[in-house]
Amino acid sequence: MTTFDQRASDIGIEFAEPAPPAPHTARVVIYNKLAFISGALPVQDARLSQKGLVGTDVALVDKARNSAKQATVCALAMLREELGGSLNTVKQVIKLTGYVACTADFHEFDRLFDSASHLLHDLFGSSGRHARSIVGVAALAKSAPIMVDLVVALK
Asked: What whole-number distance in Å separates Cα of residue 69 and Cα of residue 118?
């Protein structure tokens, strides 16, 4: 049986070490076998992979979709570290919430976050099927275009 960790390697996901949490917060809180993962930005090589607003500064098809996928990988990296370096105790991805820093006339949220949902399905199979909410906002931390948080059930 293929483990989630093996599948991550097979599909080319590389987990970087997550940044330390902000003071008085946790990257992940586990309560009653539910893991609540703090908002993750699209960080690659210890810096934001993109900055700016979707709809003006960040093109939808390539950069914004990649940012959504990268932010999801960063959220999973936080969870993986909290679980001792493995995702094999994941039972089900419950919910993905996506935040998009965008212009008022941008409305293609689903297209943008499909890449994140596909990644979760590719990694976890049917256990990656999740509820999803996407919200457009005026700005995000560090001028990031995307932020993702997850709720995951554990075995």
From this structure: 9
